[in-house]
Design a protein that fits this description.
It is a single chain. This protein has 329 residues and is an alpha+beta fold. The strands form 7 sheets. An 8-stranded mixed sheet has the order 5-6-7-8-20-12-22-9, with helices on one face. Strand 3 and strand 4 form a beta hairpin. It is globular.
Length: 329
Amino acid sequence: MAHKTSPYGSSYSRHLPNPPIMCYRSADGSSLHIGLPKMPVNGGELEIVPSGDALAAEVRGVDLSRPLEDSDFAIIEHAFNTHSVLCFRDQDLTPEQLVAYATRYGEPQRLFLNHYAMKEHPEILYVSNIQENGRDIGYADAGIVWHTDMSFEKTPPRATVLHAREIPVTEDGTVLGDTLFASAIKAYDSLSDAMKERLNGLRVVHDAAGRRRKTGTGVSSDNEQHENHDLTVHPVVRRHPYTGEKILYVSSGECEVIEGMADGEAVELIDELAATIIRDEFIHRHKWQMGDVLMWDNCAVQHLAIHDYELPLRRMMWRITVGYTDVYE
């Protein structure tokens, strides 16, 4: 059975992407159980609770402000590779603690819009609609179309980690600003054999400025940065660098050109694949709570931010993207 060592040292099997069933003894050693146990970790019990959707799980019993033992992190990382989106509720992290946790998945990515970075911790980007002196202090229109973070880079990030510091809440207590996630793994698996064969060897151009051109959003200085970014070509179908699963790696927001294909045919195929990824059965909707730490696998999912709020309702997230990944078929 073929195994591959990831850039960060963990091992995976290309043929066994799902977590194994484990045998474990009860705390007093009197009985043997089958399944995933609750594991003691930094003062609580570590529990992985799947969302029931095609992706996502909640990690309970973990205080991310405290260092994790390697064995505990290995369980969480395995859950991340399995469920693609993980949520940790009720966290209150300092920037240092957020960086310490996130960088266990890889080194911080260079920030594209670094003028929205935290001065003391330039790895962290403000995602926010808050303004000072009439200017955005953070990336205000992040995620307004379906996409995967920084796919226009040659080595796009493994993971994005977002920490909720302020969330928009209406007078009646309704929380706004949900985030939707879609499994590009499940989407690929759903394709017909004929479509999978058609996609073999195809390469698509990722354009940093594509979304902004289509939506007409963003401030001029940000748009100029995107327009000046080099185009990047990736395979339409990539392999997950940790599980070996195949993934649809296209988005209609940032992709319009497929190498060697007529423009009209390329756009039609991209739109068809993009629509497949966001079918209802592949979606998980995250409803934010204050203190959430939410992380997602940019190799495996696309996401969409729901912008159903405006000032004076404020939203502030700290974002860090980590891990450089090679994109290959």
